[in-house]
Specification:
By secondary structure, the protein is mainly α. It has 3 helices and no strands. The chain has one domain. The protein is elongated, with a radius of gyration of 22 Å.
Length: 131
């Protein structure tokens, strides 16, 4: 059995891209992956900071562990902000395609803002509980 012919006729490509559009799309997809890597790194810093703050090796090191953990979580906040700023700069330079739905643009912002919010709240919590 042979596959049925496509809507535009046999062998025709629907929605074919030229080389410039393909390169732009490849750059934007790489930019999205980079933003996700920044967010993943920021959350890793936050998790490490929480572990350091909560599980000091000895009671005499509790304050130092709390300060170091809070600082590590704050580094996570900075990483997330830098990642989002870099993501926006690349989009401005490359130019977002006009056919991208608005929901896709909001998702990147929501992910970065959510990460910054979680890391900030964790830093405030840890900072308030340093003994």
């Amino acid at each position: 059995m042979s596959p049925p012919p496509g809507p535009a006729g046999a062998g025709a490509r629907v929605g074919a891209m030229n080389a410039d559009d393909s390169a732009t799309l490849r750059d934007l997809l790489a930019n999205n992956r980079t933003l996700l890597a920044f967010i993943r790194t920021a959350l890793s810093f936050a998790g490490l900071g929480f572990a350091v703050a909560k599980f000091g090796l000895s009671p005499s090191m509790t304050r130092t562990a709390g300060l170091l953990g809070t600082f590590t979580v704050a580094v996570g906040v900075v990483v997330a902000v830098i990642g989002f700023a870099q993501h926006r700069a690349v989009i401005r330079r490359v130019g977002a395609p006009s056919d991208v739905p608005e929901a896709a643009k909001v998702t990147h912002t929501a992910a970065a803002v959510g990460c910054v919010l979680v890391c900030t709240l964790l830093a405030v919590y840890l900072g308030a509980n340093i003994k």
